[in-house]
């Protein structure tokens, strides 16, 4: 596996803090650490916006269950963009995906895309560990049709687990070089991070970024 230098790896990272108990002070510390480490962005809960930082600011939408009405997800995304979020990571309706309602999944994503149009970057969290391969392919195709910029493996909150090399590789094969692929959930070591990149990830969601970068 190709070793990636620290600066290049850091530039692929959304330095993430989505714990429900996080405080505004915790988020401010996260932003300072992201600046020191040279990460691409921070990813924080919508209620923490706006955040003053020199790195990009990402947030989540319909998090973590995805079982929100599309209109609510759309309103949440629009509010976050108005408060300075450059990127929105939305959770699909996983129940619809498992039931085979791909049109419903696509409509849900499209509602958020319409509420947060380009240049806002829209990442679609598919909760890959809760889906089979056929479902993963179907929802990635739906995300692309709906105008998403990235597909993303996981919230990191689902009991089924987080990112796997298999899911990342399947997602990359499905979207080709047309969309980004973000691996997140349970990536805690340098080796795991590099494995996700080798599998096709172009962005990484990490909460323990310093530990990963320091190996």
UniProtKB/TrEMBL annotation:
The scientific name of the source species is Brachybacterium huguangmaarense
Active-site residue list = 89, 152, 182
Protein's UniProt keywords contain ATP-binding: no
What name does this protein carry? Answer: Deoxyribose-phosphate aldolase
Q: Which domain of life is it from?
A: Bacteria
Its recorded reaction(s) are: 2-deoxy-D-ribose 5-phosphate = D-glyceraldehyde 3-phosphate + acetaldehyde
Report which gene this protein is encoded by.
deoC
Family annotation (InterPro entries): Aldolase_TIM, DeoC, DeoC/FbaB/LacD_aldolase, DeoC_typeI
Provide the GO MF annotations for this entry: deoxyribose-phosphate aldolase activity
């Amino acid at each position: 596996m190709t070793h990636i230098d620290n600066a290049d790896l850091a530039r692929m990272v959304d330095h993430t803090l989505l714990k429900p108990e996080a405080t505004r002070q915790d988020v401010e510390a996260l932003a300072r650490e992201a600046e020191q480490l040279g990460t691409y962005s921070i990813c924080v809960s919508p209620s923490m916006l706006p955040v003053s930082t020199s790195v990009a600011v990402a947030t989540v939408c319909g998090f973590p269950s995805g079982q929100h009405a599309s209109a609510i997800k759309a309103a949440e995304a629009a509010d976050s963009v108005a408060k300075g979020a450059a990127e929105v990571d939305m959770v699909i309706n996983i129940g619809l995906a498992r039931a085979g309602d791909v049109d419903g999944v696509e409509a849900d994503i499209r509602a958020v895309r319409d509420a947060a149009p380009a240049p806002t970057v829209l990442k679609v969290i598919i909760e890959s560990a809760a889906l089979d391969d056929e479902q993963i392919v179907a929802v990635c195709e739906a995300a692309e049709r709906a105008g998403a910029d990235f597909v993303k493996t996981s919230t990191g909150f689902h009991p089924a687990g987080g990112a796997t090399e298999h899911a990342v590789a399947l997602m990359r094969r499905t979207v080709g070089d047309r969309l980004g692929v973000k691996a997140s959930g349970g990536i805690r070591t340098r080796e795991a991070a590099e494995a996700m990149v080798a599998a096709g990830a172009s962005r990484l969601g990490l909460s323990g970024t310093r530990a990963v970068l320091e190996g």
